[in-house]
Amino acid sequence: MSILDSKIPEGPLADKWTNHKNKIDLVNPANKRLIDVIIVGTGLAGGSAAATLAELGYNVKAFCFQDSPRRAHSIAAQGGINAAKNYQGDGDSTYRLFYDTVKGGDYRSREANVYRLAEVSTNIIDQCVAQGVPFAREYGGLLDNRSFGGVLVSRTFYAKGQTGQQLLLGAYAAMNRQIGRGKIKMYTRHEMLDVVIVDGKARGIIARNLVTGEIERHSAHAVVLGTGGYGNAFYLSTYAMGSNVTAAWKAHKRGAFFANPCYTQIHPTCIPVSGDHQSKLTLMSESLRNDGRIWVPKHKKDVEAIRNGSLKPTDLAEDDRDYYLERRYPAFGNLVPRDVASRAAKERCDAGYGVNQTGEAVYLDFASAIERYGKEQAYVKGLNVDDKAIVTKLGKEVVENKYGNLFQMYEKIVDQNPYETPMMIYPAVHYTMGGLWVDYNLMTTVPGLYAIGEANFSDHGANRLGASALMQGLADGYFVLPYTIGDYLAHDIRTGEIPTDTKEFEEAEKNVRADIDKFINNKGTKSVDHFHKRLGKIMWNKCGMARNEKDLKEAITEIASLREEFYKDVFVPGTEHEYNEELAKAGRVADFLELGELFAKDALERNESAGGHFREEYQTEGGEALRVKDYQYVSAWEYKGQPSDAVHHKEPLEYKNIEVKERSYK
Amino acid sequence: MNLTLKIWRQKNANDKGKIVDYPISDISPDMSFLEMLDVLNQELIEKGESPVAFDHDCREGICGTCSLYINGRAHGPETKITVCQLHMRSFKDGDTIYIEPWRAEAFPVIKDLVVDRTSFDRIQQAGGFISVNTSGNTQDANAIPIKKENADKAFDAATCIGCGACVASCKNSSAMLFVSAKVSQFALLPQGQVEATDRVLNMVKQMDDEGFGNCTNTGACEVECPKGISLENIARMNREYLAASLKG
Fold it and tell me: CA geometry: angle at A574 spanning A568 and A577, to 5°?
């Protein structure tokens, strides 16, 4: 028996959540006023949780490192949010969304959690519309949908290419209402630097005011982390510059197990790296694969000609193009899941068919979509469907309406017009499925410490489907945590306010101050970025899209020695008593340097390929991921000092409502 | 290319601040403007000097954090983009570039180019929401059809990223475009009607209390808005405000 108790409720899958809600303890409204909850992070998960808990009557203290809760990186999510509404009448259902998500995650997620997610997905859309989120609509005034990868129905709700922005602003507005009422106390430009544990329970945090440098103690009856993923361990990623693992990692060091750190999503459609100066990568939404077709030239001579500029991609004949996703996966075509699409791009580029100077780019082409939409519009308007100029003009209008902001973003970065010439894209780090281990109640292995949204590990298995991150963030924050946290807090109604002048707060604050002093007084010779970039190179080359035993072993050694060098030679200018971004970055990179090693260790332990974790030793003859039955478990790591000493625990995964089979998109 | 940067340096809110010259060389036209500043900061750190503080986060034009006033224009010389989307190909070798923070009484400087925009948050807290609890028992999302035209207009208003370029560009430091974007979004949707009166009165009052100036219809805000938020929203807010005042 594993020491990990997932607390999955008894009963048939479809009744588990309802039964659970009926049985858990509640806190009466008068008593909620006596209870404080700290929420760290104000993205979709943290923001929605803060608003909902405050509505329920708890006293919420919310923290974000940004200058406003509205700037959390959920804002950058583009394509959409899934919900099993079946508005299109195309056969969608709660079960189908559940099935697609478990299969998409390569049978490495927890059945009960995923079913609950699918179940509450429909509430999210209702809730957001009631809040005034302006989703895209059809001419009849009803909500529009589109398709995302790995599914055969249209269940994705969207607001152009900026759905995350609109949903986050919805949660931000809900938070604002509670801030205005005094039920949320908002701490912006604050970074959480430790969790305080009192008598085995999470009872507060130590935070640094990033403007004044002050170290503050904050207490509460429970602490919730909605602090996002750790993809910035790779340095280059689609994450925001400030996204970090620090809150989750400090929680890990205080006893929260870290689950499946090696499950990373490398998103297939990002703008390729252009040079060493690059600070971040930009995603081009998966929704573009609804209409864009991915290809490389069939022949090497054309690749050469394109690279040296003597041939334009638009001049290459249809027959000389290799639409490799349509060729390899006829059933799903360009809408295969992300892990599959990324590996296929890498395979073509490794074989020498990459279309840019670095050989690491493939085309995403909208010419056929522009023609198809143009003809449709010309027909509707009674115009000549054979007039190319008219068709192209009308087609471009439709495409602009759907993806205008994405096309503009592309043009600004690459300086090419994607309406005229195909986009160039390449995979980049985008999301981390791994995170803090949580039970069905979203509680970590530390009582009273919760993790929601991307910060936890629970719903996406080894690969996340498109438009599911927004769904999970809001499901956790609006509809799951507000119930499950009550079950825990019901035992705290007589506790009273948690004092901060205790030895536990003292000790945690002392540690935080010691870490900061170390950086400020280190007086090394190299900047924080220097080390971050080097870590990123190790991660990308040895723990990236394809991994093997030799590389992973090297990565573990290299990261450990880089960490040592970092502590010896890092230079942080300025003082701790001021706005000091380098100091904040130093703390974040220090934690990435520990997490990175655990990441590689986890990838080495998992002798199989599953979803985003592709081990070269484990693949089918056709180059697809080869799962191994013995690894049908969640890996949860317990902190014991150094990443190399981390203790491995297993939570076995059982599938009673879905048949585990080879994941095929052919 | 080689450039001369003239950057506003100010230690903290109480410091007087001044422009400091920094020559910088070997800048690639493919770099973003912020990556160029990264290069400068790495050089300063190597020399043991204090790097230039500037706000930035997503670096893809959506979070609204970046906020630089470049050669006298919010977000620099191009239109409909944020600074993080601005690339060095918009400049030429030998250029002198002035880089300053947003200037407005309601946006005090924290350090160098970083300003405090919490006044924007407080305006939103005064009424930028629809009062609906997250029960999960709201009516079905398709129960109220909304004209596509209105839904699209509401969306266009809702794309405001809250960066503050409108305020920085306005000679009166007015926040009318920012406030009207939220008022319009909700005014255009049936869900927003119920609280329309209180919303516009409360948000406008908070805007005035924060020390933002009046609108004199110069239209500078619309020109510099990275999301192209239209002046129509200000007109709509004025109508909403007038109607609300008459009711009130």
Answer: 110
Q: Could you tell me if B125 and B172 lie in one domain?
A: yes
> What is the per-residue pLDDT across A124-159, written as a single tens digit (0 to 9) for each?
999 999 999 999 999 999 999 998 888 999 999 999
- Strand ranges inside A397-454, DSSP E: 423-432, 435-436, 449-451
> For residue B107, what are the CA distances in angstroms to A20, B118, B202?
48, 8, 20
CA distances from A530 to A139, A235, A471, B55 (A): 53, 10, 36, 20
Domain boundaries, position B85? 3-110
Does residue B64 sit at the A interface (CB-CB below 8 Å)? Answer: yes
Residue in chain B closest to A525 (alpha carbons) equals: B46
Q: Which residues of chain B does A283 touch, with a Cβ-Cβ cutoff of 8 Å?
A: 60
CB pairs under 8 A between A and B: 212
C-alpha closest to that of A217 among A396, A382, A36, A376: A36
Q: From A466, A465, A473, select the one nearest A435 (Cα to Cα).
A: A473
Rounded CA gap, A151 and A336, in Å?
8
**A95-108: pLDDT as tens digits:** 999 999 999 999 99
Of A120, A211, A274, the CB nearest to B30: A274
CA distance B95 to chain A (A): 20
ipTM of the complex: 0.98
| Beta carbons of A161 and A283 less than 8 angstroms apart | no
Asked if the C-beta of B192 comes within 8 angstroms of chain A's C-beta atoms, the answer is yes
CB atoms within 10 A of CB A57: 17
pTM: 0.97
Give the mutation candidate from A143, A581, A582 for the B interface (greatest B CB count, under 10 A): A581
Per-residue exposure over A541-563, b if at least 16 CB sit within 10 Å of its own CB, e if not: ebbbbbbeeebbeebbebbbebb
- Average pLDDT of chain B to the nearest whole number: 97
B91: which 2 tokens?
């400049």
CA distance to partner chain B, nearest, from residue A160 (Å): 9
From A282, A161, A406, select the one nearest B59 (Cα to Cα).
Answer: A282
Option in B57, B126, B142 nearest A87 (CB): B142
**CB < 8 Å from B in window 432-471 of A:** none
Task: State whether B86 and B176 are in the same domain.
Answer: no
Same domain, B105 and B126: no
- pLDDT band at residue B136 under the 50/70/90 scheme: confident
pLDDT in tens, A451-476: 999 999 999 999 999 999 999 999 99
Q: Report the pLDDT averaged over residues B185-207.
A: 97
Domains located in chain A, CATH noted: 267-429 (3.90.700.10), 504-633 (1.20.58.100)
Query: Is A146 noted as a catalytic residue in this protein?
Result: no
Q: Give the model's pLDDT for residue B248.
A: 64
Q: Spell out the SS3 assignment of A454-497.
A: HHECCCCCCCCCCCCHHHHHHHHHHHHHHHHHHHHHHHHCCCCC
- How many Cα neighbours within 13 Å face the side chain of A305? 15
- B61 and B102 both lie in a single domain: yes
Contacting residues for A110 by C-beta, under 8 A, at least 6 apart: A6, A8, A440, A458, A459, A634, A653
pLDDT, tens only, A307-356: 999 999 999 999 999 999 999 999 999 999 999 999 999 999 999 999 99
Given a contact cutoff of 8 angstroms between Cβ atoms, the answer to whether A666 and A623 are in contact is no
| Domain count across chain B | 2
A129 and B141: CB-CB below 8 Å?
yes
Q: Amino acid identity of A584? A: A
Q: How is A362-399 classified by DSSP, letter by letter?
A: EEEE-HHHHHHHHHHHHHHTT--TT-HHHHHHHHHHHH
Phi-psi region at B121: left, alpha or beta (left = phi > 0; alpha = psi -120 to 50) = alpha
Q: Tokens 């699409």 label which residue?
A: A341
Order of all β-strands in the sheet with B3-9 = B18-24, B3-9, B96-100, B69-70, B73-74
For residue A168 the two structure tokens come to 């986050």
